[in-house]
């Protein structure tokens, strides 16, 4: 009952109220094992567990639970399916069961269009949007492949998860979840029934043992009654004897009472004397304590006086030492002031000397600046003269070299040793000089 009500409540989209069901379970007759189908329908229709839900919602929830638990329908709904021959998209009503997906023209399940057989080799893959269709996914089987389009991403994800869970159960060889839960509930009911039978058997054994105990208790009660009668007779005899003894003891008690009264008077007198003696002792002890306290106070006062005297002597010594130290500091301060005045005068003299040296250095700097300018002017004149002399020397060298015929193109020289001329290392070798001499001699002979 709890499982069915919970499934129907979840199908309606409402929350399960465990506390309300516990109250209902307590109110239900515990002698009954369950409810009939009509009683369960009346319970659902009463609205006790479906408050605020209309009849259509309750009917749809009952139909959904019936499809899941009785018809093994794991999921159902409208989706678009792509055809295998004409490749067109048609809307179909899909019904997912533990090993098959059937699709119909509409949800009345009258016109069935085909089945998709599921096994452990099947798989589901999400596809990207294409051809204007969205929320696509693919179901791959051994012989065929099916392209399906859901209405939205949520429905697409729910269908993919439901099909994957079904295929995983087929691979593992496990039954559907609701069948497994049904089997567990059945095993639990059998276990509870066995425990109940065992409890009933134990109760019968306890009842039989209780009856035996009752019989034993009855026999014991009769024995106790006989023993009580005997005890009453003995008690009667005992009372008679007790009366006789009581009379005898009364006389003795009177005599003892008189003796005790006399002894109490004597004890009272002795107690009064003892109390007076104890009061005197307490007074003496109190006086002794007061004397002890007075002695302690006098001793403490003497110690305090000695401590104060020592403290005053120590303070006097410290004051003398501080006064000597202050006088010493005063002398040191006077000496420091005198030394500071002398150093101040010395620094003032040194500052005057440095200012005079600075003025002399400034004059020397100006003199050096003038000398530097004159030296620069002389350097410029010498530089111009050197440039003029260099130009003259160069023109003179050119004339001499042209006259002698020594002007030639500058070419890389050989590695042989060069000749030395009046103007420095020659630009030609000894063999080149001999060749030029032969050439001059030939020109000279031709001219003659």
From TrEMBL:
Subunit structure and binding partners: The SWAP complex consists of NPM1, NCL, PARP1 and SWAP70.
Coiled coil segments of this chain: 178-399
Protein name from the UniProt record: Switch-associated protein 70
Locations listed in the record: Cell membrane; Cell projection, Lamellipodium; Cytoplasm; Nucleus
Ranges of residues in domain PH: 72-168
UniProt-listed InterPro entries: PH-like_dom_sf (IPR011993), PH_domain (IPR001849), PH_SWAP70 (IPR057837)
Functional description taken from the UniProt entry: Phosphatidylinositol 3,4,5-trisphosphate-dependent guanine nucleotide exchange factor (GEF) which, independently of RAS, transduces signals from tyrosine kinase receptors to RAC. It also mediates signaling of membrane ruffling. Regulates the actin cytoskeleton as an effector or adapter protein in response to agonist stimulated phosphatidylinositol (3,4)-bisphosphate production and cell protrusion.
Pfam families: PH (PF00169)
A GO molecular function held by the record: DNA binding
Major site of localization recorded for this protein: membrane
Keyword list, A-Z: Cell membrane, Cell projection, Coiled coil, Cytoplasm, DNA-binding, Membrane, Nucleus, Phosphoprotein
């Amino acid at each position: 009952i709890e499982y069915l009500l919970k499934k129907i409540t979840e199908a309606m989209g409402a929350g399960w109220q465990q506390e309300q069901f516990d109250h209902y379970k307590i109110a239900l007759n515990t002698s009954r094992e369950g409810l009939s189908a009509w009683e369960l329908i009346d319970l659902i229709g009463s609205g006790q567990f479906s408050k605020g839900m209309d009849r259509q919602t309750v009917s749809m929830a009952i139909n959904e639970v019936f499809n899941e638990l009785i018809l093994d329908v794991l999921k159902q709904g409208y989706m678009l399916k792509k055809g295998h021959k004409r490749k067109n998209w048609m809307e179909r009503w899909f019904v997912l069961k533990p090993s098959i997906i059937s699709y119909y023209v509409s949800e009345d399940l009258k016109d069935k269009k085909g089945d998709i057989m599921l096994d452990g080799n099947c798989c589901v893959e999400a596809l990207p949007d294409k051809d204007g269709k969205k929320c696509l996914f693919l179901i791959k089987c051994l012989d065929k492949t099916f392209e399906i389009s859901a209405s939205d991403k949520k429905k697409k994800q729910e269908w993919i998860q439901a099909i994957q869970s079904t295929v995983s159960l087929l691979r593992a060889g496990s039954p559907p979840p609701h069948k497994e839960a049904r089997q567990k509930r059945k095993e639990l009911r059998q276990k509870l029934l066995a425990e109940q039978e065992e409890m009933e058997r134990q109760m019968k054994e306890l009842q039989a043992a209780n009856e035996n105990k009752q019989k034993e208790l009855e026999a014991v009660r009769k024995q106790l009654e006989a023993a009580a009668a005997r005890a009453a007779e003995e008690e009667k005899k005992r009372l008679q004897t007790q009366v006789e003894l009581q009379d005898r003891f009364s006389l003795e008690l009177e005599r003892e009472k008189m003796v005790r009264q006399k002894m109490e008077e004597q004890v009272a007198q002795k107690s009064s004397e003892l109390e007076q003696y104890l009061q005197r002792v307490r007074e003496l002890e109190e006086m002794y304590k007061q004397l002890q306290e007075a002695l302690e106070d006098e001793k403490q006062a003497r110690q305090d006086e000695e401590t104060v005297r020592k403290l005053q002597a120590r303070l006097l010594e410290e004051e003398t030492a501080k006064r000597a130290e202050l006088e010493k500091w005063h002398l040191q301060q006077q000496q420091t002031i005198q030394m500071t005045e002398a150093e101040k005068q010395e620094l003032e003299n040194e500052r005057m000397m440095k200012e005079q040296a600075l003025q002399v250095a400034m004059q020397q700097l100006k003199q050096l600046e003038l000398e530097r300018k004159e030296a620069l002017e002389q350097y410029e004149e010498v530089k111009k003269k050197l440039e003029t002399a260099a130009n003259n020397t160069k023109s003179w060298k050119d004339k001499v070299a042209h006259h002698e015929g020594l002007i030639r193109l500058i070419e890389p020289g050989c590695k042989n040793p060069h000749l030395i001329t009046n103007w420095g290392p020659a630009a030609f070798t000894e063999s080149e000089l001999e060749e030029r001499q032969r050439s001059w001699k030939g020109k000279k002979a031709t001219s003659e």
